């Protein structure tokens, strides 16, 4: 018996040695003898390992995932290749590369796998991850319809935004009580008000029954975005891992948000279908228009497509704009002289203290320059949403092969000394000429390029302008007494935001 055990152990050890020798031989051949997988026309990049691709190179470049791609770009240039798992990926880091490649119609598709497939019942539906005929029809229809209900129209949006900001100021005033000031945790204060603005345009109302859903979506949406960029990268590279380590990779949190959003949207859709079957009125919101079009084109205007359109609109507008607003407060607090200049500009344009309208913005170049500088330093979507090449694409001497994932990372561009002379400084004046007019706004590329760029730019600008001006009319912002200056670097996540900080809101 003992002899048999020893003999088996011996065989096992021999087998292990053979396997180890085999693997070593394979890796040696792979690295030294096999022809380089990058044909010389593909953009350069570190040599990928079998199975894991360049995940180790990314991890080695920096333990801060927001920096990794930029660090590799310093070595390989404005366009370089990586393999994320087995996925061939190209990273763009210069404005020229992004502008040229992302406006090419062959890059209108998206990467679609792992959690991005699970969130949409494994179908390419909705706006942000659909493609082809459905995307061609749904995106223009959704934004044309939203515009009818106020989206991107300052006069209509003013009403929604004032409503949301009043509620936010109410909470701050309650906290101040009979005093003059209070310290506020800035993290997440804008999520709920900003989500409410888009909710009103999509659903057409905020009833007391809607409030808990808005709160739930704001909270779970934030948890989704914070659920770990590393986890999402790994899950996209090795989709099966999401079922093996769902908790560690953030997959549970992500699915929790998707399921919550899809259930809320489905209930709204059914409720509207019932209403429509009894009284047929002219639509006053996106949901109503969606349901009314169901009978004419059920392939597009069905409940699943509504669920994903609802999710795309609420998530894309809320997290980006709220994180951007957190950066706005951070920079106002960190640079009191900048805050004072904006306040003086507000006083000059509306000395009587009336609410500002978006049309006042054209008289206010300094605040416009401040918003541009905030986009440069507070890079909410530093890594834009991944695209996918529909055919081979030529750029300079390189070829991006069909089906390559295309990612853009704006950090190096925004931090380049060559482009900005003093990139580390927060200096809105860089966007003003000697006559005090706004210049070089086109150098801010945060909303991307081409037909698949961000459709929410104007909406985001209106929201930021009206929220910030009304806030500064009421409060002066500062670092709380006895606290250190908050961190100015960016907190990693699917989108970037400031690290948690407090600001003192003092009534003017
Ligand atoms: C600070 C605010 C925002 C920033 C920096 C931002 C940035 C971006 C970027 C970089 C993309 C990817 C574009 C591409 O693939 O080339 C995108 C997509 C998108 N954004 Fe925004 N965004 C912001 C606010 C908004 C708002 C307010 C909305 C309102 C609805 C919105 C809706 C969308 C949608 C639906 C997409 C997907 C478009 C498509 O795939 O066709 N975004 N955004």
TrEMBL record:
PROSITE patterns: CYTOCHROME_P450
Chief location bin: endoplasmic reticulum
Residue sites binding heme per the record: 454
Subcellular location: Endoplasmic reticulum membrane; Microsome membrane
Keywords: Endoplasmic reticulum, Heme, Iron, Membrane, Metal-binding, Microsome, Monooxygenase, Oxidoreductase, Transmembrane, Transmembrane helix
Record flagged with keyword Signal: no
Required cofactor names: heme
Chain ranges passing through the membrane: 15-34
Heme as UniProt keyword: yes
Pfam families to which the protein is assigned, alphabetical: p450
Any GO BP annotation: organic acid metabolic process
GO molecular function: heme binding; iron ion binding; oxidoreductase activity, acting on paired donors, with incorporation or reduction of molecular oxygen, reduced flavin or flavoprotein as one donor, and incorporation of one atom of oxygen; steroid hydroxylase activity
Recorded topology in the membrane: Peripheral membrane protein
Any single Gene Ontology cellular-component annotation: endoplasmic reticulum membrane
Family the entry assigns: Belongs to the cytochrome P450 family.
Described purpose of this protein according to its UniProt entry: May be involved in the metabolism of insect hormones and in the breakdown of synthetic insecticides.
PANTHER family found in the cross-reference section: CYTOCHROME P450 15A1, CYTOCHROME P450 508A4-RELATED
Protein name, as recorded: Farnesoate epoxidase
